[in-house]
Amino acid sequence: MPKTILVTGGAGFIGSHICHMLVERGHDVHVIDDFSTGKKANLPKKVTIHEMDIRAKQVAAVMRKVSPDAVIHLAASIDLQASLAAPKDDADVNIIGSLNVLEAAIAAGVRHFTFSSSAAVYDNTGLMPLPEEGPTRPSTPYGIAKLAVEQYLHVMHHARGIHTAVLRFANVFGPRQTPKGEAGVVAVFMQKLKKGDAPTIYGDGEQTRDFVYVGDVAACVVMVAEKATHGTFNVGSARETTVKSLYEKMATASGVKVEPVYAPARLHEDRRSALDSRKAAGVIGWRAMTPLDQGLKKTWESLTKK
Questions:
Q1: Domain 184-207+240-272+296-304, what architecture?
Q2: Which is catalytic among the residues 122, 142, 213, 247?
Q3: DSSP 3-40
Q4: What pLDDT, in 10s, does the model give residues 149-180?
């Protein structure tokens, strides 16, 4: 049955894919976005846009007027290195902004709230892939903010009755991605390859990440919103891929062969990361279906089709 769904950050990379899928499934979709990074061109025509910052007082008025059945909260400051340089600014958007959206949703009687969290909440020194019950010890202020909002959601569920889904994304990649953010390495490398320039690999290239295609992630978010699923779930492929291997796969997908250059490793960068998504498979019925090679090919084709 169609629902009214409000998506914050809907014009962004992940959000726009979710909005397209929601519209295709017949839902009435509203988007809150300040377009600081997202683009109106990313959105399907059948969405209602409310242009504002998630920290704005007007968010509460929009929430009351729209009276959505569900909220999907994606809007965030997503640059991990920037969060290290300016943790207060990161917290202002990712904690205070998130609480503004959450309080507005509760006041408007929203029944279900989906929050896009991150693999950055984990202590990535343990066995891989990481389960939801794994230790949380963020290495960046960005990860701290995501974990803090998770805790607020847990408290508000018990205190105010709102059902919440916390989705801890692995490194999401795909069409419309910008070079900024957690999985920005894919977009950065592809932009370099498109120009025929040499990409830079920081460190020895043996650090690993769990890369998951944006179409698969959007499907998970939509399933959760439609079913009003409650709980905390990893959203990843459960596979570790080294940055060096990622680049080799991207060179194959693009057909462009340029030797990368190496630079010193970035501070506070996790050495390994992969998420165990068996809980999502069992409860939601979701699995990452797009192989990395196929996802990279789709991303390259999207980037070069113009």
A1: Alpha-Beta Complex (3.90)
A2: 142
A3: -EEEEETTTSHHHHHHHHHHHHTT-EEEEEE--SS--G
A4: 999 999 999 999 999 999 999 999 999 998 76
